[in-house]
Amino acid sequence: MQNQTTTAEQVIPLQIDDLTVAYHERPVLWDVDLSVPAGKLMAIIGPNGAGKSTLIKAALGLVPIASGSIRVFGRTYAESRLRVGYVPQRTSADWDFPTSALDVVTMGTYGRLGWFKRPGKAEAGRAMRSLEHLGMADYAHRQISQLSGGQQQRVFLARALAQEADLYVMDEPFVGVDAVTERAIVGLLQELRERGKTVICVHHDLDSAPEYFDWVALMNVRMIASGPFSEVFTQENLARAYGGRPYAFKHGAA
User: Fold this and answer.
1) Are 160 and 108 in contact (CB under 8 A)?
2) pLDDT at residue 207 above 80?
3) Is the pTM here over 0.85, yes or no?
């Protein structure tokens, strides 16, 4: 018989309660609650300065919090980190560092090896399969500085895929990418959902969001609403998030 903790881990990959984050005593997140069900593709949406990236960085322990609690699969992030794959903004990386695409992706296997083991054939094979998955196998030995922006983003995604995580957290994965990369990302998101994985993406395009994702967190420093797109993605909630400005959708809004 499963205990209550195990059941909670399966149901709630990310649970955030009463989260406040402040920079120089100015709140950038205020009293935020968020519960992300398993197997969902969630978009975090809001205007510039809404705290979207800060929210996921706080969840991953990358920025200090002023108050609140964060549970990842029912535990602290430190206890669950091997179940989490993180794709940061592409601009956060040093793409001039002298290393190959395969080396970058292989880094995604390090967490399961521990401190004293070096990656071997199994890890190299997993990294290569991840590159193949994103259409980047032919670039495995190319220096990352020689790749286009879209190709670099696919390398980032392949690295997260190589982690074989249960929860994937992505910060603006669609920004500045070409059409080929965008299709690759969408295909990957759909496949991850089919495999029962949970994906959280900071996203900025209001028109594509309902097409790419099935769950949404709409925020502006505070959480405006979160849940299924049909319930949350309304003109009323968007007006609250974006300062009262109506938005003309290409495909309509609820």
Assistant:
1) yes
2) yes
3) yes
